[in-house]
Design brief:
Layout lengths: L9 H13 L7 E6 L3 E9 L15 E7 L2 E9 L9 H27 L7 H9 L6 E7 L6 E8 L5 H9 L12 E5 L2 E10 L2 E10 L5 H38 L11 E8 L10 E9 L2 E9 L3 H20 L4 H13 L8 E11 L2 E9 L5 E3 L5 E3 L3 E2 L13 E5 L4 E5 L1 H4 L2 E2 L2 E2 L5 H7 L6 H15 L8 E8 L1
Parallel strand pairs: 14-17
Antiparallel strand pairs: 1-2, 2-4, 3-4, 5-6, 5-9, 7-8, 8-9, 10-22, 11-12, 12-13, 13-14, 14-18, 15-16, 15-19, 19-22, 20-21
Helix pairs in contact: 2-5, 3-5, 6-7
Length: 487
């Protein structure tokens, strides 16, 4: 209330307040004086009051009445200020209260949508503070504990007047912020502010405190609203932390499935790989690649596609990559590696998923590269000659994880200097634009024919860009591209 507004009618206001209080039951009640433009409104509220009737005030009031909100009964009256008309009606005030109630409900709905819209745990405290200020309080400080444990620290502070933030921060540094034990708001002792700390509790865990400050007392409806908002904010904070923890665990597991590295030096061999898993949070999917040295002038490579995408496919990806590396370095030839991998996938039982694979061994010779390779149900490998001629160079054999009796035989291919071998997964060949696939009518061969005399990296990038531009919508399938070029 503006202090000067009531100075001229102070005695009448005190007398009217006494009259209203005299009608209260012998239980706690609340008195509020509100400056209403051309009048002073005096409200005396009490919960669980049985009185329904009221005696008209004896003084010169412009309007008076009794209103109910839930279990709270409010006796109120207005005194006109000098020079004012004092023309508000009972219905005006009741409508204002109803309108404010609707406004609070809309505020809570909007706040819930904002809080639910972020899964970044560092953003939630900032959102809480900026939702609260200035609607519920002049400033808001959100305290959290590292990893949900230990002492509370200030995570975010916001003030309606940004120039006051630094001074308020210094004041809060010396304030005793209570630890939450239940949902009851707790007072915070600050010199110039009425401050309340609302616990942030979710799923039985204390996540921190939300401290609100304002120049005057906290009305009951504001305090109740802040308490409700605190519960929603705590749940949003806990959801964001759980999501972040799960995302960190997923990333750590996915990175463990990526190849440990490709050879730094490959004399006589120029190579490049492109790998793009489907999904915003996936680093590993059902497609995979690998290239590793097995001797001074020999290497093994693999490019494969596990049925499906996501974590379940990534589990089989890890099994395939580790099995290939282990068996190849133990000296098993290409056919033996593929055969044993087939058995390993079948032994996974219900968790098994079928797998297509292009696996080969590269040996450097005086006139290029000799390759022994097997295509187990995989899209055909293509060889590009410097003249622009493109041809398929391997015979497709049984895919893996389906037939226990499957037998595999390696094909032998020679790459002369300048020749390129391209291996891709079906994320390339089956890239769809309407009813058309990228590889319809030899589309991939035509793309590769345009890459004569390019480096392995340039070929891989040309294919990747063509896949991206083939359709407007993002690809829903993992994609891997492996390019080998004889120097």
């Amino acid at each position: 209330m503006t202090a000067w507004a009531a100075s001229s009618i102070g005695m009448d206001a005190e007398r009217l307040t006494g009259e209203l209080v005299s009608e209260m039951d012998d239980v706690p009640f609340e008195i509020v004086w509100v400056h209403q433009g051309d009048s002073l409104q005096i409200e005396v509220s009490q919960k669980d009051s049985d009185r329904a009737a009221a005696i008209p005030p004896s003084g010169p009031v412009t309007v008076w009445g009794v209103s109910f909100a839930g279990s709270t009964r409010t006796r109120w009256a207005r005194l006109g200020l000098p020079g004012g008309g004092g023309t508000r009606t009972v219905d005006d005030w009741a409508g204002q209260r109803a309108s404010q109630s609707q406004s609070w409900l809309g505020f809570l709905a909007d706040a819930s949508d904002l809080l639910a819209g972020t899964l970044d745990p560092d953003m939630v405290p900032a959102l809480i503070a900026q939702i609260v200020v200035p609607r519920l309080a002049t400033w808001c400080a959100v305290y959290t504990a590292d990893a949900g444990h230990g002492p509370l620290g200030l995570a975010y502070l916001w003030h309606a007047d940004e120039s006051q933030i630094d001074a308020l921060r210094e004041e809060l540094d010396h304030a005793a912020i209570p630890q939450a034990e239940n949902l009851t708001p707790l007072p915070v002792q600050l010199a110039d502010w009425q401050s309340l700390a609302f616990p942030l509790l979710a799923r039985g865990r204390s996540l921190g405190m939300m401290c609100l400050g304002r120049a005057g007392r906290f009305p009951d409806d504001v305090a109740q609203l802040a308490e409700d908002l605190g519960r929603r904010a705590a749940l949003a904070m806990d959801n964001a932390r759980l999501y972040a923890q799960q995302a960190d665990a997923n990333r750590a597991l996915q990175r463990s499935l990526l190849p440990p590295g490709t050879p730094a030096e490959t004399p006589g061999l120029d190579y490049s790989v492109v790998y793009e898993p489907a999904g915003e949070t996936n680093e590993v999917g059902g497609d995979f690649y690998d290239l590793f040295a097995t001797g001074e002038d020999s290497w093994r490579f693999a490019i494969g596609d596990v049925c499906g995408t996501g974590p379940q496919a990534a589990a089989v990806t890890g099994l395939a990559r580790h099995t290939i590396r282990l068996l190849a370095r133990e000296g098993y030839d290409v056919a033996s590696v593929v055969s044993r991998l087939n058995q390993a996938i079948l032994e996974e039982g219900e968790r098994a998923r079928f797998l297509t694979l292009l696996h080969g061994e590269i040996r450097r010779t005086s006139d290029g590269l000799d390759l022994s390779l097997i295509s187990a149900g995989h899209p055909e490998a293509l060889r590009l000659r410097p003249t622009g001629q493109v041809e398929a160079v391997v015979t497709s054999q049984s895919l893996l994880g389906v037939f226990p009796e499957a037998e595999f035989t390696a094909d032998h291919v020679h790459l002369a200097p300048g020749d390129v071998l391209l291996g891709v997964t079906d994320g390339v060949t089956e890239r769809r634009a309407g009813e058309r696939l990228l590889d319809d009518d030899g589309g991939l061969s035509r793309l590769l024919a345009e890459c004569a005399d390019l480096s392995a990296r340039a070929v891989a990038e040309r294919i990747r860009r063509a896949v991206e531009e083939f359709a407007v919508e993002p690809s829903a399938d993992d994609m891997a591209i492996l390019v080998l070029r004889a120097d």
